[in-house]
Protein 1
Amino acid sequence: MTETDRKRLHVITWGCQMNVYDSGRMADVLAPLGYAPAAEPDGADMVILNTCHIRDKAAEKVFSELGRLRRMKEATGNCMILAVAGCVAQAEGAEILARAPYVDIVLGPQTYHRLPEMVARASRAGNKVIETDFPPEDKFDHLPESATPQGVTAFLTIQEGCDKFCSFCVVPYTRGAEQSRSAATILREARHLTAQGAREITLLGQNVNAWHGEAPDGTTWGLGRLLRELADVPGLLRLRYATSHPRDMDDDLIAAHRDVPTLMPFLHLPIQSGSDRMLAAMNRKHTADDYRRIIDRLGDARPDLALSTDFIVGHPGETEADFEATMTLVRDVTFALAYSFKYSPRPGTPAAGAPAQVAEADKDRRLQALQALLREQQTEFAAGCVGLDLPVLFTGPGRHPGQIAGRSPFLHPVHVSGSADLIGTESIVRIVANYPNSLAGTLVQERRIA
Ligand code: 5AD
Ligand code: SF4
């Protein structure tokens, strides 16, 4: 490739871990065309805005960012190719080109393997490209192996889409129906990631524990079996998966938490509400007690398992009593980490049209009360780690010279004094202090498992 063929690509990523993964894969698809990563959008030959539609004023945020990118595009003499990808692109489609005619490409999450062809079409002056259909072919069959290592910790999408149709959620509409990749392609990608230096892999899916993929022998495996197979991938020290639905925590998956030591004792299992009335209104298809029973069984399988979850406050119809049921559930279960959100109406979802919308002030008050309780529990959990010897996977340099940073089994960032050659290995660290968003420790034993 000559200097003149080299082009600079900047990808802006909003939203979930799957978008982070997708952004990496979009860069992989464009690499053979000469696109190399650019740290800034200014002066880039192509900018992709990979968007999220899950909450808030998603579309408004996109148009305001596009306004900023428009000026940068004009500064390049309009040579910059501007693409909008992800879930807002999927949901808004042609509306994006109508409101921002300087955008060249609008593409949904299922079509980015076709980016080279879209770029070729968009490069012909004046051409606009919209690709938001769900194509018949599987994009994963058309993506090249990633040439750019993700690092010590890596994401691997194994499942996409969702058939659950929770009342509030836009995902089944933007990401489409549930689809599982085959076990063989997942195992191949995992081996490729570890060969590139990954030591921890997080399996991703909108409903990751609904994964049921074709096995090499033609049968169908569930996630429990896949985790057992992945545990044998050379070089892999840690496995995680996110995000799960309580309905899909089957017996074999729970048993995998007992049997697979590389599966980290930390699980993100959204519940959304502690009120059965709200769970029914949300179409979650489980009760608060179902959830409690599942985590009891998980705790029996893996006694050191810590939990993380998601909550929505102010879903249509939520009363003070419903909210109190959520607070009670939090007090009973206790979470090491949790994300909580005010209900945000998503166009086209059943809850958006429900009559009993909750007043903004009530949502605010409930969110504050819930977050205060969750913060307390999060701090208490981190404080409980002080004095423990925990395995820490070192992922990179620390903030200060002579420091390295890693991750606890429970996803806390951990800082210790240590040599940079420990990066990519797991060592035992005595935790000596907890800070609001991290832990500090000292090396006890360099296991140097690489
Ligand atoms: N409003 C607020 N929160 C939402 N989530 C999904 N849709 C909405 C919405 N419309 C939250 C849920 C989900 C997390 C990814 O985002 O808690 O688990
Ligand atoms: Fe959305 Fe998750 Fe419900 Fe699927 S299971 S509809 S992704 S909240």
Protein 2
Amino acid sequence: MFIEPSRKKEILHPRTGWIEVICGSMFSGKTEELIRRLNRAKIARLKVEIFKPALDKRYHEVDIVSHNETSIRSTPVQTASEILLLTGNCDVVGLDEAQFFDNSIVDICTNLADNGKRVIIAGLDMDFQGRPFGCMPNLMAIAEYVTKVHAICVLCGDVASHSYRLSPSQQQVLLGETDHYEARCRRCFNLGEKAKLI
Ligand code: ZN
């Protein structure tokens, strides 16, 4: 059987995959960083596929849109398992708003990386109460690279890592970032939480 030289090289030395996580609070530039990495992979002529949970419908059905309006085409999926079916021959898999996937996303990402794909995940590391958000701690544990990006506290100008919820709702998932949340440092976050109790 004839195997073309480039393919032969791939069979003898299969490319290794890995997992990258970009995490942080709201307004920290997670999605911008995801888009930057994916665009660079495209320049390198790698085949890129991007997914996000279907529940995130804030701006547009198909595009990932970050707050500074740079965007990139993505496919909304209802469940994590759909991702395996849709990533057959791609080199790089991007996931945005990963905190909204259930824990099965951990095995899916492991499977993708084991099969030679670069997986780049962006998501909120903490919810509005400062608790680890859903599947994100597990994704950070299995990743080769974790990057935590930060916002700026709107009250004092320090580095912010908390998403402070302005409205009284106690639901963990509340969409519509600019209306309901602001970035705060630990101190201003805690002061705000105390004031809510009064
Ligand atoms: Zn502050």
Protein 3
Amino acid sequence: MNIDIISIFPDYFAPLELSLIGRARALGLLTIDLHDLRTWTHDVHRTVDDTPYGGGPGMVMRPEPWGEALDAVVADGGTTRIVVPTPTGRPFTQAMAHDLAREPHLVFACGRYEGIDQRVLDHAATTAAVSEVSLGDYVLFGGEVAALAIIEAITRLLPGTVGNAASLVEESHAAGLLEGPGYTKPSTWRGLAVPEVLRSGDHGRIARWRRDQALLRTARQRPDLLAALPESALDRHDMACLRGAGFQLSAPDVAE
Ligand code: ADE
């Protein structure tokens, strides 16, 4: 996968040299090219923003540098997806990370201030796919931190970057549930013991316990995720586990 990032703060992206993303780049699984938006300004002050038409607070990013920047990095032939991090975008999810991980070329257009002049995105949409993506229901200073988070979520899904592919299957959000708690040695720490079942060696019991923990954690922390599961996702044991813990379930019939 090839990623281009356009920002007025390319230094924000220094962490992309580190750890597993740095390793993915060294292995050639991923290229990342950083671009300073001000490269495409032509005035002495290298201006990227101006006051909004119609009035109001804040500044809007001018279309000219953005237009030239995208002309320079978007590939001909419609193979590029432009990702615009913005609090007005669609919420970023693990499913979206999987979709983006399948793209050959992503361009992250990181806006600041009150965002980018809308005509930039409207025009870009004539030559590339454009996805406006929000990290969550809160407002950051700009798209840089969101781009970092999105790139990290995508890189983990590229074949060859996560050592143990099973961890991608069992992790939180893979099957619409949160993952349950994890434990390692020592078996007792500050008087707190690791649950006996995990030391039993009984793989059937361990799998059932882990599933129960995932269900209970999801019910407690993210009832919205539990409610969004298709009926067929919960079997008789699952329903019994949740009812036993006092969670009300509406589905009358479930798979055996
Ligand atoms: N830029 C500012 N706030 C943002 C958010 N919540 N998500 C993505 N990009 C942003």
Protein 4
Amino acid sequence: MSRVFSGIQPTSNLTLGNYLGAIKNWVGLKEGHESSLYCVVDLHALTVPQDPEKLRKQTRETAAAYFACGIDYTNSIVFHQSAVAGHSELSWLLGCLTPLGWLNRMTQFKDKAGKKKDQASLGLYGYPTLMAADILLYKATHVPVGDDQKQHVELARDIAGAFNARYEKEFFPLPEPQILGDATRVMSLRDGTNKMSKSDPSDYSRINLTDEDDVIALKIKKAKTDPESLPSELSGFEGRPEAKNLMTIYAALEGKELSQICTEFGGKPFSEFKPVLSDRIIESLSPVREKMKEFMKDQVELDNILKTGAEKAADIAMKNMHDVRDIMGLLQV
Ligand code: AMP
Ligand code: TRP
């Protein structure tokens, strides 16, 4: 049996990074798998302070983005994490099997907690065990994520292995990270050495899926570059992270190799490339934005879709949780 699971936090507007590194690659992925689940991971969002009303809105907006990007909710299970209680329960159970040493290796915690480690929450520290629970609750085998989440999926795999070894059973399949697409790490438009992120204080660092066309054009116009013309071969990207990022985004949207884009645009100035790039981004993202607006207009319908998704997810989760409790020796009466 093979099953796909992935998720995105509803922490704020989704970005072009989420689109190219995650959602775009989920579309059509169900082929060849028994089922696929796409979750809006609202419990993960709570690892940092959230405004309650905003969190609810962003949970709906993230689901709307999934649908607008082409995830078919009649074919895949789309739901929000907090609607299926098994996520929190399994997170606790798996936490009891996870050595601190494994959590201490997680680079995302180190980055997010920074120097104020003592003030970071237990939730932020235990974030990877909740993510492992998301995946293992459904015995998912394939986990499509951007490059930054590979370490967390590998940890989920180690935790699955630890469970199987402790209870001497091949119960959990070992999940595989799938790093798909041609832009697995889209970088900030302000600094080509930093990831494009929803949480960057500068809105000019990212393209949001909700940005209007003129905003997209302006952000690309203002995107950081260097004084040289575009490289005509891959070796020309040495020390030029911004050039590499912009051309990689274009290549990914065109579905071409980066080297092909170098051949097409090598020697040209950024002033010539940028309008082509912003037109291409607009071509891809403006239909997504308009569809998102449509989904957001009918909140009752959107909530119903999520509710149906949660029911389907809970059916699978309930059976697996029953087995897990049984294996771990919890009395079920
Ligand atoms: P997050 O926004 O951190 O909840 O990430 C959700 C998904 O989008 C994960 O699979 C990430 O790896 C992916 N992702 C987030 N930012 C980027 C980026 N800048 N480039 C590529 N993938 C990304
Ligand atoms: N931690 C992931 C991120 O920030 C989101 C996520 C939560 C996830 N649970 C998951 C991704 C399970 C894949 C599978 O990007």
